[in-house]
Specification:
The complex is a heterotrimer. In chain A, 27% of the residues lie in helices and 27% in strands. By secondary structure, chain A is α/β, with parallel strands linked by helices. Chain A is elongated, with a radius of gyration of 22 Å. The N and C termini of chain A lie close together (6 Å). Chain C has 17 helices and eight strands. In chain C, strands 2-1-3-4 form a four-stranded parallel beta sheet. In chain C, strands 6-5-7-8 form a four-stranded parallel beta sheet. In chain C, helix 5 packs across helix 7 and helix 6 crosses helix 7. The chains are: A alpha/beta, B mainly alpha, C alpha/beta.
């Protein structure tokens, strides 16, 4: 029986789980599809709610990856996974053949493809961007329109691809609201003369210190919160984006012209996760994320013995939640390995 | 009307581009807690005046912020400044001061002082 | 604006359109409001593109106007449409070509209903058989006639005598495309290019050299909306919707509005007259009104047919400014003459003359 553990995915969940397993003495092999570890964090600027630079968290992950007994196979995807008498046999797209006693699935999430919300014109209208695009702009240092000028009126649309039957996602992605509030504050700080509008359905400020951030956005930064989902976007002759929504609280439709519109793209089960789900016959929920065998005390356990989940492959999670979930996954793996004599 | 038997219906949009939001800005500056409102409606629910007339502080709040100033001046007089709304507001908005400032701002606006 | 993004969406919404052998069903109102359009469609298909198009004089209204005003129940309209399918079957045709967007929407919706509720299909078969002794098949291909012109847009471009370009400036004309709501808003898959960025008319404009205008109220209703219009006191809603569209497109300096729906063509044309009378507003350049043409009329102009034979003079907003921009020669004296040269009574209050 192999003592190896394979971790699929080198984002926050995968690295954290691998670090814990390595500390417990198991040889760990991470398979990462990208060139670098860190996953979505690599494209993010500041993290909510304390607006810490994401680089710090990535360097925490890099420390783990470099200083513990972990081998990382980058630029590879899983090609085939088979079960062989209690062991797993995995072949990567680069032809590596790996034996392992357990697998941690940490395939994370994909961002909702915002062009699917055709009425918002992402990919068609200049200056309709996503929350991820805005983070890249923050990292690059300048918030600029296509014409090179700074925007003076910016709208943020919550729930793009979340809580939306037409997008096929009924669930709340949970983190977009706080992302919008964080981005609204950062926009106001970076462009003090700008006006920022958040179009929301409900403000889901459930995490620690999220509500306080919301209060700060209202009071300190005078961000306007309009309770109504944007129904359509057009472009006026002067190039402004024309936004239509219902201002539900005023009980009337609203029409507003903006320079830039930021779509808060939701989180979806990743494509890599979907492939592994069919290879290993792992069950998924109606939200397409992996479904655990128990929601309350077994959220790391899959329906297949020896296969464990860590992080956002099971549901939208923040970074701290992901880290905790990954540690819990490592605990479950260790218990399994001991029970099966590995 | 006589010729066609109908008229061109007026649009229902809040015309954000041409509305005047100086009153809202004035209140926000003098009483920043005005910006904290999340339109939960606790104020309207507890309001005595609202029990008998179509008066809603919640609605008033949003209309002022959008610059929909017409009618508000009349409506706002329905408030008796009893302060029940201040007691129940979960966001700590100084509602009485908001009303007072709004009245002040309308008066100033009429005198072209805002 | 990034056209590649639109192309991506268009590629998601392509549909099969038959190549030949069409059973043609006319619209109730088009023959009186723009009488040249359907005639030209037949001429184009039969004599220019050499296609087989059959129409049966026993074809009737689809009863769509009655249906949408709550007079005709759904069982009745399904049976009427089933009868059209029966006429098609009897004539040996499998591809239906529908002239009206309201009808097209109803045919699409009824086929979709039958797919999901086969018991409704069975009932309709029974009603039709009991009433007329007829039987019918579901068409193999269902297309709106604007779909068919779209399909042959490049063949038309290859034979073009006139391109949609301002002859004096050499610039492409600014053309607003307006799609009938029932073309694809109910079933985006049934329309070329979908419902958000329909390609059916913009594809023709592209192919024939014009420039498509994308203005904020592009998706908005023309103002027809049966129920608003049918009650006179409510017509203010109808005309207000039209005014909203035109004021949104005005800054783009439109030279022409191209439509694919009978109601849209009529209302966007006639209400421009009404708005001008009521408030003195016009929406084209130099205080002119904007001509509203059907895709058949535009195809005819592109192919060099005589504008008066296409019937474009039967709109309220006259097209002379457009004809001048396109460099199309015309004889004003022939405008309202019958085929054998008799002068007809001259209409009053036309605009753009």
């Amino acid at each position: 029986m192999s003592k190896n553990v394979i971790v699929i995915g080198g984002g926050a969940a995968g690295i954290e789980a691998a670090g814990q397993l390595a500390m417990a003495g198991y040889p760990v092999i991470i398979i990462e599809k990208g060139q670098e570890i860190g996953g979505h964090l690599l494209d993010w600027y500041h993290l909510f709610p304390d607006r810490r630079n994401s680089v710090e968290v990535v360097s925490y992950l890099n420390d783990i990856a470099e200083n513990r007994n972990i081998s990382i196979l980058k630029n590879r995807q899983t090609e085939k996974i088979e079960r062989n008498k209690g062991n797993f046999h995995l072949r990567t797209s680069a032809g590596d053949e790996i034996e392992a006693g357990a697998i941690v699935v940490a395939t994370g999430f994909d961002l909702f493809r915002s062009e699917k919300k055709e009425e918002y014109g992402y990919g068609i209208y200049d200056n309709v961007i996503t929350s991820a695009d805005l983070e890249k702009m923050f990292r690059a240092g300048d918030i600029l329109l296509k014409n090179g000028k700074a925007p003076s009126k910016i709208g943020l649309v919550h729930c793009v691809g979340s809580r939306d039957e037409k997008s096929g996602n009924l669930y709340c992605s949970k983190l977009c609201c706080v992302t919008a509030v964080k981005q609204a504050i950062e926009l106001r700080e970076k462009l003090p003369s700008s006006k920022v509008f958040c179009f929301y359905m409900d403000m889901r400020m459930g995490g620690a210190h999220y509500e306080e951030l919301y209060l700060e956005a209202q009071e300190k930064h005078a961000v306007s919160f309009i309770r109504g989902k944007v129904s359509e976007v057009g472009v006026a002759h002067n190039g402004s984006l024309v936004i239509k929504a219902e201002d539900t609280l005023a009980g009337r439709p609203i029409r507003i012209e903006l320079d830039m519109l930021v779509l808060m793209a939701g989180m979806e089960m990743s494509e890599g996760g979907r492939k592994i789900s069919s290879d290993l016959h792992l069950s998924t929920g109606s939200n397409r994320f992996f479904s655990s065998i128990d929601n309350h005390y077994g959220s790391n356990l899959s329906n297949e013995n020896g296969v464990f989940y860590a992080g956002t492959c099971t549901a939208p999670m923040s970074i701290p939640e992901t880290i905790s979930h990954a540690r819990a996954a490592a605990t479950e793996v260790i218990r399994y390995m001991k029970n099966t004599g590995k | 009307m006589s010729r066609f038997g109908f008229t061109i219906t007026k649009a229902r949009f809040i015309d954000y581009e041409s509305n005047d939001r100086r009153i809202s800005e004035y209140i926000s500056e003098m009483e920043p807690s005005f910006l904290r409102c999340i339109e939960c409606g606790c104020c309207s629910a507890t309001c005595t005046a609202a029990g008998f007339t179509k008066f809603s502080l919640r609605e008033l709040n949003i209309l002022i912020k959008r610059g929909e100033n017409k009618e508000i001046n009349k409506t706002i007089r329905k408030c008796m400044l009893c302060g029940k709304c201040t007691l129940v507001c979960p966001r700590g908005v100084n509602t009485r001061n908001v009303i007072t400032l709004a009245k002040e701002a309308y008066q100033k606006a009429e005198n072209h002082a805002v | 604006m990034n056209k590649e993004g639109k192309k991506k969406i268009w590629s998601d919404y392509q549909k099969e359109i038959a190549d030949d052998h069409f059973f043609y069903v006319r619209s109730c109102i088009r023959q009186s409001f723009f009488p040249g359009s359907e005639q030209f469609f037949l001429n184009l298909m039969r004599n220019v593109l050499k296609k087989d198009v059959y129409e049966n004089p026993a074809h009737t209204t689809c009863t769509g106007i009655g249906y949408h005003s709550d007079i005709v129940p759904s069982a009745t309209i399904m049976t009427v449409i089933a009868r059209h399918f029966a006429l098609m079957k009897e004539a040996g045709y499998k591809n239906i070509a529908i002239s009206c967007v309201t009808s097209f929407g109803l045919y699409t919706e009824i086929l979709e209903t039958w797919k999901h509720f086969p018991s409704e299909l069975a009932k309709t078969r029974e009603y039709l058989y009991k009433a007329t002794g007829r039987e019918f098949d579901i068409p193999e291909n269902l297309a709106h006639t604007s779909d068919i012109i779209y399909k042959f847009r490049d063949e038309i471009a290859a034979r073009a005598k006139v391109l949609l370009v301002n002859k004096e400036t050499g610039e492409p004309l600014n053309i607003v495309e307006h799609i009938g709501c029932h073309y694809a808003k109910m079933f985006p898959k049934s329309g070329i290019g979908g419902a958000e960025f329909p390609h059916v008319l913009s594809g023709m404009i592209d192919a024939w050299g014009g420039k498509v205008i994308d203005y904020p109220e592009r998706r908005h209703c023309c103002g027809f909306g049966f129920r608003q219009y049918l009650v006179q006191a409510n017509r203010g809603y109808s005309v207000a919707n039209t005014a909203k569209k035109f004021s949104s497109m005005k800054p783009f300096k439109p030279d022409l509005v191209l439509t694919n729906c009978p109601g849209c063509s009529m209302f966007m044309d006639r209400w421009q007259y009404t708005i001008k009378e009521m408030e003195g507003l016009t929406y084209g350049v130099n205080g002119e009104s904007v001509p509203v043409l059907t895709y058949e009329e535009l195809a005819g102009l592109v192919l060099g047919f005589n504008p008066w034979d296409l019937g474009i003079q039967y709109h309220m907003v006259q097209s002379e400014p457009l004809l001048r921009k396109l460099g199309i020669e015309f004889d004003p004296g022939d405008k309202f003459k019958t085929k054998d040269g008799h002068q007809m009574p001259l209409p009053q209050n036309l605009i753009n003359v």
